[in-house]
Amino acid sequence: MSRSQSTKTALVSAAALVGSALFLSRILGFFRNSVIAALFGQNNITDAYNTAYLFPDTLYLILIGGAVSSAFIPVIARYIHEQQEDEGWRVVSIAFSLTLVGMSAIILLGLIFAPLFVKLIAPGFGPAKFTFTVMLTRITILAILFHSLNGVLIGTEFSYNTFLATSIGPLVYNTTIIVMGVTLAGRLGIAAFAWATVVGAFLNFLVQLWGTWRLKPKFTWSLDIRHPGVRRIGRLMLPVMIGLSIAQINLLFNQIFLASLLPGGTINALVISSRIMLVPILVATSIGIAMLPSLTRQAVAKDHDAFRSLFTEALRAVLFLSIPASVALIILAHPIIRILFQHGAFTDEATTVTAGALLFYSIGIVGYGAYEIISRAFYAMEDTTTPLRTGLLSVAIGLVLNLILIRLFSFRGLALAFSLTGFLNAGITLWALRRRLGRLGGRRLWDATWRTGLATLAMAAVLLSAGLAIAHNLVVGPPLVADLIQLLAPILVGVVVFVAVARWLKVPELSLVFGIVRRRLRPGYARSGAGD
Q1: 32 within 8 A of 178, measured Cβ to Cβ
Q2: Taking the mean position of all CA atoms in its chain, how far away is CA 353?
Q3: What pLDDT does residue 348 have?
Q4: pLDDT tens digits for 3-12?
Q5: How much helix, strand and coil, in percent to the nearest 5, is found in the chain?
C-alpha cells in the first residue's frame, strides 16, 4: 500500500470512528431533547432553558471550538511531525494552564452580567420569563470551565490521532444529563437539566483526562504566553475567534433575538430543528477533524498534489452523503418530529411548527457540510484569515436575509436565512481556496455531484410514493410502533433505491462508503483501529 493510500485508509478509519461516536452522542442528545419536550412541552419554560444553554455553548464554540479546530491541532500536529514532542507537551501545558485561569475569570464575569446578556439577546421576554432565564444561565455557565479544558485535552488527543476517549466522553455527557435530569425533574423542574449539564461536563472532563493520560503526558504548570508555539496558536486563533463571534451573533440574532419577538415556543422549535439538521453535518465534521492532522503534515511537507487529492476526495464524500440527507429530511420532517418529540406535553401544533422549521433548515445541510471540509483546508495551511474574511461577508448578508425573510415566512424565514447563509459561505470560501491552490478537480467534483443528484431524485420519488402507500394502508399495532414503521419503511426502501441507482451510475464515492463498512465489520478491526 502506498503512503497516499495508507493516509486515506487511516483517514477513513478515523472519520468512521469519530462519526459513529458523534452520531451516537447526537442520538442521546435527541433522546434528551425528547424527554425535556415530553416533560415540559414547547413554551416559555423550554424557551428559557434553550436561551440559557446557548450562553455557555456560544462561549465554548468561540473560545475553544475555534482554537481546537483552527489553531491547536495544526500546531501540536506540526510539533509531532517534526519530532519535537517535548516542546509540544510544553505548549499543551501552557494552553491548559491559561485556559483554567482565563475561563475561571470569564465564568465570574458571566455570573455577574448574566442579566445584561439575557436582556440583550432576548428583548421580547417578559419579566417572569427573563428572571427564570437568568437563573438557568447562571447554572449552565459553570459547565464552561469543563467544556474549555476538554477542548485542550481533545485537541491533544486528535493531534496524536487517538479517538477513544473523545468518542466516549460525549456519550457520558449526554447520558448523565438524561439520567440526572429525569431523576431530579420532579423536585427541581427544568433546572434539573441545567445542573445535569454541569455534572455531565465534569464527567466528560474526567474521561478526557484518562484519554490524555494514556499518551504519557509531560505536564508542567506554566503561563508562559511568550512561548513561540503558544503565540502561533494565538495568532491563528484570533481571526477564527472573531469570525465565530460574528457567526454566533448571527445565530443568536436568528434563533433568540428575532424569535423572542414571536409567539412562545418558537425558540424551542428553532433550536430542536437546527440540532436535527446538524446530524448529517456531523459526518462532514468527523471527516474534517480526522483529516486535519494529515492535511497539516502534507502542508508542512509542501506535498500540494497529495493535499489537493485528499481535500477533494473528502469534499466529494461529504456531498455524496449530504445531498440525499438534505432531501430526505425535507420530505420526512413532519414524521421525524412527531416520532421523536410528540409525547407528553409536546402537542401536535408544536410538531407542525417544529417540522416547518426543520424543512427550511434542511436546505442548508449541503452548504454547511461542505464548509466543514473547505475551512479545514485553510486551517491546515495555518491560514485562518481567509475564512474570517469570507465568513464576515456571508454573515453580513445573512443578517439582512433574516430581516427580509422573517417578514415573508415568519420563523420559517429565519431557518431559510440560516441555510442560504451556509451555501453562500461555502461557495465564497471554495472560490478563495481555488484561487490559492489552483484546480481542485472541479470536473470530477461536478461529475460525482450530478450523479449523486440523480440517485437522490430516485430516492425522493420512492420516499414520497412509499410514504403515501403506507399511510393509505393503516399500520396496526401500538402507536409508537406504527409510527416507526411508517417512517423507517420508506427510508429503507429509499436507501436501497439510492444505492442501486448510484451503483448503476458508477458513483465512485459509493465504493468509499462500502469500504468503511467492510473495514469496520472485519474481524480484528477494533484491535487495529485508528489511533487506538
Answers
A1: yes
A2: 23
A3: 87
A4: 555 555 555 5
A5: 85, 0, 15
